[in-house]
Specification:
Length: about 280
């Protein structure tokens, strides 16, 4: 008795406002890429192929944030056409570096950059995909960790829950034997509140963590910020650490707003003293 061949899950990759780096992480898998291609039907992947097949799709990998009205509608269509939606990278999960516009003057930016701003249709904010549609899995990073990306795809194909790290960068530093630069040198580092995924690269090269993988689970951002302030770091020095790749992540955003208020208060006191 012969059995009909099992249908491969149909995979689609979508890009919104982003640099394409997270999509390239999949192409960088090299040795594993052929295995992935054998397990799924890559129905749509504009970064890698001109062959586009219409939906519905089983798995959608979504890179980039929502920055235009058109994209806000397009992501809703993606959700309607896909069974499982996985957002990949800081742009898709937290608005990305372009979310710095959320604290700026949108109309003023348009006038400064474009000769005819009336032709530009964009939103005043850059927001995560999850602020527009339900998301099944989020894969953080700038860019994503390719091994984590493979784990998500293979887990979904196998019908199991992906096994992803939930600890902070600090644990990776301990495992590598990296001396804590915040303790030893007083360098502000976001490792205690940042989700693991990068392999603690920056601390390994004597630099503080920049929070590329966003807030760790139950990250106590307020406590760490208070510690930095108490040990002599100025609010204006700490502000760029949190307003970075994951600036619009709620835990980072809350503390960066607080630091901005403190920096303005300090600046006001200095101005008053000068006068």
């Amino acid at each position: 008795m012969t059995h009909a061949p099992t249908r491969k899950p149909r995979l689609a990759v979508f890009k919104f406002a982003s640099c394409d780096g997270c999509q390239l992480s999949l192409l960088d898998c090299e040795d594993e890429l052929l295995t992935v291609a054998g397990l799924v039907e890559i129905a749509m992947f504009p970064e890698a192929s001109s062959r586009m097949q219409p939906g519905p799709w089983d798995i959608a990998l979504v890179e980039g944030s929502i920055t235009t009205p058109h994209d806000a509608e397009r992501i809703r269509q993606v959700r309607r056409d896909c069974t499982t939606v996985v957002t990949i990278g800081a742009c898709a999960t937290a608005g990305g570096i372009q979310s710095l516009r959320n604290w700026g003057q949108h109309e003023e930016f348009l006038r400064c950059v474009y000769a005819r701003p009336e032709y530009i249709s964009s939103l005043s904010t850059s927001t995560a995909i999850a602020e527009h549609i339900p998301v099944d899995y989020e894969l953080r990073g700038c860019p994503v960790n390719r091994q984590q990306l493979l784990e998500v795809i293979l887990a979904l194909v196998a019908g199991r829950k992906p096994r992803l790290p939930a600890h902070s960068v600090c644990l990776d530093c301990k495992r590598k034997g990296t001396v804590c630069i915040e303790v030893s040198r007083g360098v502000p580092c976001l490792g205690p509140i940042t989700q693991a995924g990068c392999g603690a690269i920056c601390p390994s090269f004597d630099r503080g963590c920049y929070g590329c993988f966003g807030p760790a689970l139950q990250a106590n951002c307020g406590s760490l910020t208070n510690h930095f302030l108490d040990t002599g770091s100025a609010p204006k020095t700490l502000l760029p650490l949190l307003r970075n790749y994951n600036a619009a992540a709620p835990a980072f955003r809350e503390q960066s707003d607080r630091l901005e208020q403190l920096a303005q208060a300090v600046s006001g006191k200095v101005d008053s003293a000068v006068e």
